[in-house]
Specification:
The chain is an alpha/beta fold and about 325 residues long. Helix content is about 10%, strand content about 25%. Belongs to the transferase hexapeptide repeat family. LpxD subfamily.
Length: about 325
């Protein structure tokens, strides 16, 4: 879109030379042809290093916009970004793409549906009622069980197994809220990348990123009924047990273990080789590697056991 069109949509006066904007992205990831935004003062330090051609800001943050960028000043940057995200969302399916490619030795059920632009590797098994969206890439020797759904632009590696009814790349739970309590959808324009040798149980949901990628690294094991929020990163060989949930933009190191019904809040960092017992609730980043935690509020597992012992004595 032209920057003049964008300015009109969000109600900003723009009288400078017009130019093209190719997409919306975060301050850190935006290129010289992209638009970004500042929704929280904690991101002020990221503004000065951003390469974004234009940045949506409010009156309090416009002074931090670098010379190479244009400041678009609005009352609520997050709301206006949500409004614009619709214009940069790709179509769900694209009939102009080439016919799907299926590698040698792959078996695809006649009841499966493969959209244009998709690529399936060699020796894959695609079972009944699987849906593979536009521009999806599936590696070699991967098995998709019945009713697996993979939305457009997502990537699944080689030697993966995805069990029935799991959805890869559905929209992340993202929306802006106005002062009047109205909600506006933020179109999730990123994707999901699943690396090699990953197994995912049935009825699990892995949300696509708002911008960029939700990443499941190699060797991960995910149980049934697990929720992975948008823009998360799950480290190599991590294990997520049934009904675990991870809120958006959380990054986990390698070999993290989440017990059943444990949960992690958003925008946190979890150190490698961390273990969380069943029903743990994580609200702060874990920086030290190799520890085991339990409970809510979260505490080291040995302390939690002592606390449970003392509580048991109190009720006798």
């Amino acid at each position: 879109m032209k920057i003049s069109e964008i300015a009109t949509i969000i109600g900003v006066d723009f009288n400078q030379e017009d130019f093209e904007i190719t997409g919306i992205n975060t301050l850190k990831s935006a290129s010289k042809t992209e638009l970004s935004f500042v929704s929280n003062s904690k991101y002020i330090n990221d503004i000065k290093d951003s390469k974004a051609r234009a940045i949506i800001v409010d009156a309090n943050t416009k002074e931090f916009v670098p010379e190479n960028s244009i400041a678009l000043v609005v009352e609520s940057p997050y709301w206006e970004m949500a409004k614009l995200s619709k214009y940069f969302a790709p179509s769900i399916e694209d009939e102009t793409l080439p016919e799907p490619k299926i590698g040698e030795g792959s078996k695809v059920s006649p009841k499966a549906e493969i959209a244009k632009g998709a690529t399936i590797g060699e020796n894959c098994t695609i079972m009944a009622h699987v849906y593979i969206g536009a521009n999806v890439t599936i590696g070699d020797n991967t098995t998709l069980h019945p009713s697996v759904c993979i939305y457009r632009d997502c990537k699944v590696g080689s030697d993966c197994i995805i069990h029935a009814n799991t959805t890869i790349g559905s929209d992340g739970f993202g929306f802006a809220t106005s002062k009047l309590g109205e909600h506006k959808k933020i179109y999730q324009n990123g994707n999901v990348v699943i690396e090699d040798s990953v197994e995912i149980g049935s009825s699990t949901a892995i949300d696509r990123a708002a911008f960029g990628t939700t990443l499941i690294k190699k060797g991960v094991r995910i149980d049934n009924l697990v929720q992975v929020g948008h823009n998360c990163e799950i480290g190599e060989y991590s294990v997520l047990v049934s009904q675990a949930g991870i809120a958006g933009s959380t990054k986990m190191g390698r070999n993290v273990v989440m017990g059943g019904q444990s949960a992690i809040a958003g925008h946190l960092e979890i150190a490698a080789f961390t273990t969380m017992a069943a029903r743990s609730g994580v609200t702060k980043s874990i920086k030290e590697s190799g520890l085991t935690f339990a409970g809510f509020p979260l505490m080291e597992h040995r302390l939690w056991l002592k606390l449970q012992a003392k509580l048991a004595k109190l009720v006798k």
